[in-house]
Amino acid sequence: MAYTAKIKVTLRQSILDVQGKAVEHALLNLGYGSVGSARIGKYIEVSINEDDALAAERICNEICLKLLSNPVMENYSFELEKA
Amino acid sequence: MADITIGVVVFPGSNCDHDTMHAVASFEGVKPVMLWHGSHDLQGAKAIILPGGFSYGDYLRAGSIARFSPIMQEVVDAAGKGLPVLGICNGFQVLLESGLLEGALSRNRDKKFLCRDTFIRPVNCNTMFTALYGEDEVLSIPIAHGEGNYFAPPEVIESLEEHDQVVFRYTDREGQISDEANPNGSVGNIAGIMNRRGNVLGLMPHPERASEKLLGSEDGRRLFASLFRQL
Predict the structure, then answer these.
(1) What pLDDT score was predicted for residue B1?
(2) SS3 for A21-42, per residue?
(3) Catalytic pick from B16, B74, B97, B206?
(4) Which of A29, A35, B43, B228 has its CA 20 to 30 A from that of B140?
(5) Contact assignment for A70 to B185 by CB distance below 8 Å
(6) What is the pLDDT of residues B151-177, one digit of tens each?
(7) Is B208 a catalytic residue?
(8) Distance CA B118, CA B109 (A)
């Protein structure tokens, strides 16, 4: 059994997201006046060969904290799906 | 007396390694050697320099993958035992990712990659990296980065300030620390910090690019000279 981890990494709200700001301005310029704000993050898919969902979840948390996100300025969340 | 070995780490994507080798080689009594990222051998280096560039293509985040390279395991261990480590630009990013320094660097405030001269002041000259500077001096040293916006939570900043770990700040030509003189949005105009112990320094400006008259400034030389004379 394998799992696919669908991981989202986003900048913390307190961190200025300059890419998001640029997109936000572009959307407003396109006439979408109801657009409030845009934030840009990363989407990462990782396959994990574990039989046990808890083991897959533990690995996923570990890799998010160790490499995939920088806890100083980013948050992460993920969903595990059976592959 | 044999020359003192200075290790310059080469990651795939480093692009200031040769400039740094060149700058180091211009000092008497030291011999720079390149340390390949895949090696575990520090070659007896008495100080380590992590140069600028785009290690591992800056994929994921600047410095995030380089920190796990074999040579960095040795650098982190040796830094823990007091070996001097200097991280310039991407090297600073690697030091933050590896936990040798606190905080993080995010995208520049105005979105642009900035490649130009900046003015900085060594606000703490009681360090092994800045002993030959004066705190009122204004140095002209270039920056070249897209992600140099230094950030740390307020309690970390407070602790850095309290322990005099802020070593360089961006200023204007007169040495005034102001928002206009802040090129990238860094908290408190911070351009460089060190660890509590004082043997690890990271900074965004490139002293190796300001180490000979021909390049327009020699203001970076005394950073290397300060370090080398202690070894």
Answers:
(1) 67
(2) HHHHHHHHHCCCCCCCCCCCEE
(3) B206
(4) B228
(5) no
(6) 999 999 999 999 999 999 999 999 999
(7) yes
(8) 16
Please give the structure tokens belonging to residue B167: 């070593």
Average pLDDT, chain A: 95
B104/A67 Cβ within 8 A: no
So what's the ipTM on this one?
Answer: 0.86
Determine the Cα–Cα distance for residues B211 and B231; give it in Å rounded to an integer. Answer: 20
Which residues constitute the domain of residue B205? 4-229
Q: What is the model's pTM?
A: 0.94
Dihedral, CA of residue B29, residue B35, residue B41 and residue B42, to nearest 10: 40
**What's the rounded Cα separation, in Å, for the pair B73 and A37?**
41
**Nearest Cα residue in chain B from A18:** B111
Contact B151 A68 (CB under 8 A): no
Could you give the domains of chain A?
3-82 (3.30.1280.10)
**B108 contact residues in A (CB cutoff 8 A):** 18
Mutation target among B60, B65, B73 for the A interface, most CBs of A within 10 A: B60
Chain B residues with CB under 8 Å of A19 CB are 107, 111
CATH of residue B148's domain is 3.40.50.880
